[in-house]
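Entry type: protein chain
Record version: 2
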Amino acid sequence: MRLLAYVLVPLIAVLSLGACTSTDHPTRAASSVPAATLPAEALQTLRLIDQGGPFPYRKDGSVFGNRERRLPQEPRGYYREYTVPTPGSRDRGARRIIAGKEGERYYTGDHYRTFQQVTAGR
């Protein structure tokens, strides 16, 4: 009986991890942010996206896979990522704008850990 408890309890715990709800892995941006309140570099990146470039980084416009599932689930290729330059950073930094095919925009200042949906206005 004791052996059964040592086997079943961990097994049940592992199996229950697969039963996480969608709130454990959010599929929507946690909040929204007016475009006017974003850093100036993000506003410039948004302008470049709207006009189709040219973009300063080679990886700008590449497919964003949404592997973390923090954005609404869409087919691969739906989202594209663009760098928001970080003053003082020696590389691309952590800030990005993610653009969806339907015109939605998301800002992340922490390299995809959190997202804010960009809205018009202040």
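Comment: Residues 26-119 form a domain with the Nuclear Transport Factor 2; Chain: A, fold (CATH 3.10.450.30).
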